[in-house]
Amino acid sequence: MTFPLMLCAMIALFSGLHFGRRFAQAHRDGGNIVLPALAHGVIAAPLMVLTVLMDPTEAGLLWMAVALTALMSLALGALLPAPAAAGRAARQNVALAPQRVAETAARSSSAA
Length: 112
Fold this sequence. Notes:
The chain is mostly helical. Helix content is 77%, strand content 0%. Helix 1 packs antiparallel against helix 2 and helix 2 runs antiparallel to helix 3. It is elongated.
């Protein structure tokens, strides 16, 4: 496999992981799940065409490796759990009721 073909496979891999995560996020939030899959298809299709045009092997089947990488990485990106940092960021955005800790401490000291 030549360097440009390896680059095509790597781009398909990282694109699939990224848009797979976006797919899972849209599915979880009730959003449009077609957009991440379509965006990944827009990136992966030209990569497969480039692979067909640059394939130096006699059989010409390296495009299947790029297609398999693109599909499997999309599925893997959708199935991998979100990192813990994303969960913490989501929890920090929760609005809590105001606490009156300072007032409670002042009352208890004046009662004594």
